[in-house]
Design a protein that fits this description.
With 149 residues, the protein is mainly β. It has no helices and ten strands. The termini are close together.
Length: 149
């Protein structure tokens, strides 16, 4: 039996949101089978301007439900977080600024017990648990790759 891979492409230019750091998308998940998946992602953005200084990081959060990813919090103030952690983005320096990217093998995979159920979902890029990444990245393309397990 061949294990299939389903790629869902999210382009920020067609998402609903006030910034590229906080976009809402629609996808009808019933288009893929309701089976367990290993999920990897790749990401590339347009130029982040002005150029980002060293020390700021960008992480992607997306509510795919059932994720096994967990975040540790401070003992003194345990907190919940918006969405699920998917992975970190990296800088690629270009002449006028930086772009953000992640290759499919840049972050560990995420495992899901079945396909996501929430057809309306948010993709957030944060520099901390609650802070949108600023300055916002240029337009981006995020590819979620669902591999049957």
């Amino acid at each position: 039996m061949v294990k299939k891979i389903y790629n869902v492409v999210l382009q920020s230019l067609i998402g609903d949101g006030t910034t590229n750091s906080n976009e809402t998308f629609f996808y009808d998940w019933s288009q893929i089978p309701d089976v367990p998946y290993k999920v990897n992602f790749s990401f590339v953005s347009g130029v982040v301007s002005p150029m980002i200084s060293v020390g700021q990081y960008a992480s992607v959060y997306i509510d795919l439900a059932q994720s096994y990813n967990q975040l540790a919090t401070a003992q003194s103030s345990p907190a919940s977080y918006k969405g699920q952690f998917l992975g970190n983005l990296f800088y690629l320096v270009v002449t006028a600024g930086n772009t953000l990217y992640a290759e499919a093998n840049s972050n560990p995979p995420t495992f899901l017990n079945g396909r996501p159920q929430n057809n309306n979902f948010r993709v957030e890029i944060h520099s901390s648990l609650y802070t949108d990444f600023t300055p916002t990245s240029g337009p981006y393309c995020l590819i979620l790759s669902f591999q049957e397990v």
